[in-house]
Structure prediction request, 1109 residues.
Amino acid sequence: MSNQNRTIYGGKVNREKPINFVFNGKSYIGYQGDTLASALLANDVHLIGRSFKYHRARGILTAGSEEPNAIVQLGLGARTEPNIRATEVELYEGLEASSQNCWPSVNFDIGAMNNFLSRIFPAGFYYKTFKWPPSMWLFYEHFIRKAAGLGQSPTAKNPDRYEQKFYYTDITIVGGGISGLLAALGAGRSGCKVLLIDENPELGGYLLDYNFSINEKDGKKWLKKIIDELNGLANVVILKRTTAMGYYDYNYLTALEKVTNHHIEFSSTLPRERYWRIRSKKVILAQGAFERPLVFADNDRPGIMMASAGQKYLSRYGVLPGKSVVLFTNNDHAYLTAFEFVEKGAKVTVVDTRDLLNARISEKCKSLNITVFKSYSVIKTYGDKKVNRIEIQQVDKNQNQLTGEVENIHTDCVLMSGGWNPAVQLFSQSRGKLKYDLKINTFVPDKIIENQKIIGSNNGQFNLQENLNESFEAGIAAANELNFNSVEKVNWTGKEEIEFTHSDVEPYMLGKKKVTKGSKHFIDFQNDVTAADIFLAQREGYISVEHTKRYTTTGMGTDQGKTSNVNALALMSHIHNKPVDEIGHTTFRPPYAPQTIGAIAGRSVDKLFDPERKTSMHEWHVENKAVFEDVGQWKRPYYFPQNKEDIHQAVKRECLAVRNSLGILDASTLGKIDLQGPDAAKFLNMIYTNAWSKLEIGSCRYGLMCNEHGMIFDDGVTSRLGENHYHMTTTTGGAARVMSWLEEFLQTEWLDMKVFCTSVTEQWAVLSISGPNSREFLKDLTNIDLSKENFPFMKFREGEVCGVKARIFRISFTGELSYEVNVPARYGRYVWEKFMEHGKKYNITPYGTETMHVLRAEKGFIIVGQDTDGSVTPSDMNMDWIVSKKKEDFLGKRSFTRSDTVRHDRKKFVGLLVNDKKTILPEGSHIVEKALKQPPMKMLGHVTSSYYSPALGYPIALAMLKDGFSKMGEQVVVPLMNGKIIEATVTDTIFYDKEGKRNNE
Amino acid sequence: MKLQRQQLLINNFFMFIINCPYCGERDQTEFTCHGEAHIARPDNPSEISDEEWGRYLFFRENPKGTHFERWTHDHGCRRWFNVMRDTVTDQIIKTYKMGEAKPEISNE
Prediction:
C-alpha cells in the first residue's frame, strides 16, 4: 500500500504528479511538492537512520534545516552526498537515498549494541579511554572514525559545476516568512534595491502551515497577493532555495543557492549550486525561530517529532504522521496542531506540563474530545523502531518532583513543543549580543553591532498582529535610512486562532531528579548527548559552557545544535542554580548549515585554478616532445628528450651541443619592462646597485636589485634603447614583483621622477641562441652586422631577422657566444621554425631550463631565488664588483654597513668540488663542521645548486658557506640523508672558461 | 582637516567597498594592503645612524584604533594610495592620494 498516511484531501502536493524514488533500495511513490521526509512519512517509513554514538533508531524530528536525525546519504557514485537532511530534500523522479551510520542495514544494525553498552560510553569516554599511550592515538583514531562516521564522501571527482556571484545591494533580507516578506514590501515600495533570501522552495515560512486571517479574511490569499506584488517589483530580487551561510564584517554575507540540486538530470548550462557573496548597505534578519524539543527519557524514538513539524507535514504535505497522537506541550500555541490533527481524523491526547489552561482552549478541547492531562509529563517512551507507548506522571511543581501513579498511553506519534528559539545564528555571527528572555525562556537579540535590523520571531517577537505592521515599517525605515522616500504605512489586522502569548511558555526540564547513569534524556539528538552527560560534565569540572560543549560534544554535529543548544544551557543553569544569562552561550560561527566545498571553490578548479602562461613557441615545444616545468605560471620546456633519453642523457646532450656548436632556448618568459622618461637613468641609479648614468645608447648592462635591507631580490640585463628609453629584463618568476617594486617607488617616494614603466613581457618572443657557431648561423638570417668589431659583447642592435623586425641583445647566460633575438610575439614561432631549419647544418639543439641551469652554474652565474634566498647581500655573493662605491644612494646601500651585514662569519657564495668526482650533492644538503652519527651537527652552510657538468666530466656545486671566501681550497664534509659522508673542496664559483674568453669571441 | 567620526559611520555603508581615489568604489578583493603609510625614506641615508636607519626599516606603529596604511588597487588602476583605517573595527575612514597630508584623528 502506497501513501497510506496521506490524508484524503489537503496539503499542497500535486497528487496528479506521482514521483518514484528509492530509499534503502526499496521503491516508493511520493508527489510533486513533497520533501524526501514527507514522502517517507506518507509511506509510513519512520526509521530513517541510526544515531551517531549509540546507533539508536532515529526518525524525523523536524521539517526544516534544523533537522538533527533524518540525515541521509543522497545520490550515487561521484554525485553522492552525505549528511543531507531529508527534511530539506525536494523529491525528484529517480531520487535515491539511503540511511547512514548503520551496518548491515538500518533495521538490523550491529552497532546498536552500543546502546546497551552505553553505561560504559558516557561523555568523555573517548578522551579517557584512548588517551594512553599518546603514540597509539593514530591507531585508535582509524577505528573510532570508522565507527562514528556520518555518511560517506564520494571518492570520484565531482562532475558538477559550481558558480560564484558577487552582488551589491541596498538591503538584504534573510528569511522569506511573513516578517521578511513585509520588510521586503516596505523597502521594495520605497524603491531601493532589495535582495530577499529564503532557504525554502516556497516563500511564506510559518504561515504556509497555519491558518490565520488578515482583516478578518483568509490569510493565505492575502499572502499570495503580497508575494505577487513582490515578484512584480523590478528592484526586488528573490532567491529561493538559498541559505545565508555566513555573516561577516560590514554586512558581507555569503549564501548558497541550490540551483539544480532538486533535479536528477544535471543541467549543462546551469550550475549545481551558486555561491553568493553579498555586500549590502543594510541587512534585515527575519529568519524566524526553531521549535524547542522537550527533554524526557527516550525522547528520540522514531514517531516523536516537533509539534510544528507535525503541523507542516499535515497541512503542507497532507501527511498524517500518526493516528493516535499525543501532544506534549508547555505552551498554548501547540494546541493549534492538536486541533488540526483531530480535524484530519486523528485521536489526540494532550499532556501539558502546566496546571492552568486558557478557558477557550479547554472548551475547544472538550468539544473536540481531546483528553488533556494537566500538570503531567511524559516520563518514558517505548517502541523498538517506532514509539508505541508512553508513560506519564503528574508533576508536583512545588516539590519539583513526579508524584502519583504512572499512567500508560498507547500512541503511534508524539508531538512535542517546548517553546521557540529565535534563529540567532546569523545575528551572532554579526557580533550581535544576546540576552536571555525570561518570558519566553530563550536567548533573544539584544545589542546590534552591524548596520542591521532584526525583526519578527527572529527578534523574539511572536505575535502575528505586531509582526505584520512592525516588519513592514522596518522595511520602510531601512529604506528611509538609505535616503529613499517614505511610502504609506498600512494597518493590517492579523489573527491566529491561538496567539503566541509570552506568559504561556514556560521552561520544562524533565526528570530533574530522575536523570541517572545510562538514562537517555536526549538533549542533542545528532551527537547523542543526554542530560546525564551534561550532569557528568559538570561533576567532572567542565563547567564553562565552552568546556561542556567540547566535553560532551553537545551542539557540535552537522546541525550545530539548532534544536539542542538552549536546552543544554537551561540544564546547566538548573544544575548550577544560576540564571541562564550567567551560564552564557557558545559562539556561533559560519557556515549556518553544512555546505559543499565545491561551491566555495566555484570555477577556480582544474585549468581555471591558476592561469597557465604559454609562450608563442609553446606548441612547437609540445610537438617536439618537450618535458615541461612550471616556473611561476609559465610552462617552460625542462628538456627535450630524444628517443628514449632520460633527463640526464638529454641534458648532457643539450649541454654539449651548446658548448660545441649551437643551442637554442625559448627565453620569452623573462620579464621585460619598458622604461621611458627623462628621469629613467636617475631612476635606474636608485633601483640598481651599479651606475647607469654613463651607459651608452646601444649598450647593455647587468644589474642587481636589492631591497632596503640590502638583500638581493632580482637581477637582469637592462639596455639603453634611446636617449630616455631603456629595456629592462627580470627573472621569469620575479617579473611581476619587480614591476610592482618600480611602481611602488615611483608612486610613493619619488613622485617627481618622470618615468613610465610598461610591462612588455608578453609582447616579445625571445630566442636565445648560444654556442660557438651562433654568429655563423645568425649572419645568414639578418641584415645586422654581427662582426666582433661592430657588434661586441654587451651591445644591442635593431634590424631584421628572417624578415621580421627584431632587437638583438648580445648577452650571455651560458658563457658562450650568444645572441638573444627578440621578435614581436606573434612572429615567435615563425622565426623559431626558420632557425630550426637553417640551423640543421650546425646541429641546432633546442634546450630547456635544466640545461640552462647547468651551463650557467658552470660559469658561476647566480639564479636569484635558488642561490639566493632573500637573506644575502651582493657582498655575500662575491659581487662587490657590481656595487657602486661612488653613488651616494641607491636602494639597499645604507644597509650594507649595518653591523649584521658586515659580519665576517656570514655565509658566502663558493664553489664545491666533491673529492670522489662522482657524487652529485643533493641541493639543500648541509655542510657541517664535523660529521656525526646523527644530528645535531654544527652547520656551516648549504648547497644551493648542484649538477653533473658534461663539459667538465664531473659534478659541480655552488654553496653558501660561513666565511667561505677565506676557506678556498679547504676541505668540508657534507652528510647525506642515506648516511654517507661526502668530502668536498671549497673553490671559487667559476668552473668553466675562467677567463671568460668564449662569450667575447 | 578634522573628521567627524559619527558622521563617517553613517555615511560609510560599504566599509569593505574601498573608495579608490582614482577609480571610485570597488570591492575589497581588488586591493592589497602594504602596511603603514607616511614612513618617508630618509633623504640622506648615508649620513644617518644605524639606529635611525633601523627605525625606518623595522619600526612600525601597529596601533589599536586609527591607522594609516598604503594600499594598491592591484586589480584595477594599479595605483598606490593611502587609507585611514580603524584596526579594531576595520572601518575605512578615508582614502586619499599619495602626497596628500595625513588627516588628523578626531575622537569626537
Summary: The CA atoms of residues 260 and 270 of chain A lie 7 Å apart.
